[in-house]
């Protein structure tokens, strides 16, 4: 395992980014820069990251970057990967997309995965369409309030990583901006292998979820500690990752109520709702085990 202190200190997220304070994408992109540097050729569909990337003289990402239409990220990366192979150019296509793009671009995501096209896809999941006004996406947490689910989202969270696993992706992992060393180890592993590599990165968003911008890492860690976000990796076999392992034992978990009550998007939930969510979390653990 490469320690954070031993990684490159070259900055790929530049000062003056237009992201909100406490933005989880910035944390994830910094980690990506430390591991892959400019070998990562970013393919970015519409989302908060395109705002962070900026335009021309206000660009705040140093990666080579293609901004592409919403649904096309993995399809563009397929083309890039073929071109790199044919022309012998350096670079690993990295699709950096939000959960919204993974809804709207699901067909291209599924197609690239089924073909095992050579790329890394990272879905930085802030559980809603944030940059257009906090509309619910397929991965919005069950019962969370958004502008399109004012009484709480009725549908359960779509499990993208398991869906990619069922596509027989070469490498699949979940990660969290609260555990950057774990995310970095997974990026290191994804960098080493060829084929379709998928990482689902949990990315709590201060304005969208309703918590203070100083608490992004804390909220991300609470999600793992209460078992609502499970860190795992499939690399030939499926393993629960180290930060999540203690919470396989239900008695060691942080009470879900603490995670829920720390966020404005859940303010309307009753104790009964929280119990229902707890049951779903137990089922998820059982399925993964
Ligand atoms: S809305 Fe959330 S994800 Fe988007 S830039 Fe702001 S903090 Fe980052």
Could you please describe the fold and organization of this structure?
The protein has 289 residues and is α/β, with parallel strands linked by helices. The chain has a single domain (21-288), classed as Rossmann fold, CATH 3.40.50. Helix content is 37%, strand content 15%. The chain is built from eleven helices and eight strands. It has helices at 24-36, 48-53, 73-87, 99-104, 106-114, 160-166, 180-192, 206-209, 216-225, 256-261, 271-288, and strands at residues 40-45, 65-68, 92-98, 119-125, 171-176, 196-202, 232-234, 238-240. Strands 2-1-3-4-6-5-7-8 form an eight-stranded mixed sheet, with helices on both faces. A hairpin with a 3-residue loop joins strand 7 and strand 8 (238-240). Helix 3 (73-87) runs parallel beside helix 5 (106-114). The longest helix has 18 residues, at 271-288. It is globular, with a radius of gyration of 18 Å. The two termini are 24 Å apart. The relative contact order is 0.13. It binds iron/sulfur cluster (SF4). Iron/sulfur cluster binds next to helix 8.
């Amino acid at each position: 395992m490469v320690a954070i202190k031993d990684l490159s200190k070259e900055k790929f997220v530049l000062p003056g980014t237009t992201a909100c304070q406490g933005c989880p994408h910035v944390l994830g992109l910094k980690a990506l820069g430390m591991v892959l540097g400019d070998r990562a050729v970013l393919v970015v569909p519409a989302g908060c990251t395109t705002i962070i990337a900026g335009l021309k003289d206000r660009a705040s990402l140093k990666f080579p970057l293609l901004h592409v239409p919403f649904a096309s990220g993995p399809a563009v990366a397929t083309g890039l990967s073929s071109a790199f192979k044919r022309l012998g150019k350096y670079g690993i296509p990295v699709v950096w997309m939000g959960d919204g793009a993974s809804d709207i671009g699901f067909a291209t995501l599924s197609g690239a995965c089924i073909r095992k096209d050579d790329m890394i896809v990272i879905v930085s999941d802030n559980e809603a369409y944030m940059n257009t006004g906090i509309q619910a996406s397929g991965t919005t947490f069950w019962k969370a309030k958004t502008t399109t689910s004012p009484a709480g989202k009725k549908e359960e969270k779509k499990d993208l990583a398991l869906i990619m696993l069922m596509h027989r992706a070469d490498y699949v992992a979940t990660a969290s901006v609260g555990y950057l060393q774990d995310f970095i180890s997974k990026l290191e592993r994804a960098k080493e292998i060829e084929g379709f590599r998928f990482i689902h990165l949990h990315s709590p968003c201060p304005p969208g979820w309703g918590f203070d911008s100083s608490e992004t890492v804390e909220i991300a860690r609470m999600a793992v500690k209460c078992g609502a976000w499970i860190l795992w990796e499939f690399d030939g076999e499926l393993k629960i990752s180290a930060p999540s392992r203690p919470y396989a034992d239900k008695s060691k978990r942080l009470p879900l109520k603490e995670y829920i009550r720390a966020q404005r998007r859940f303010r309307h939930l009753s104790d009964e709702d929280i119990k229902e969510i707890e049951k779903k979390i137990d089922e998820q653990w059982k399925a993964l085990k």
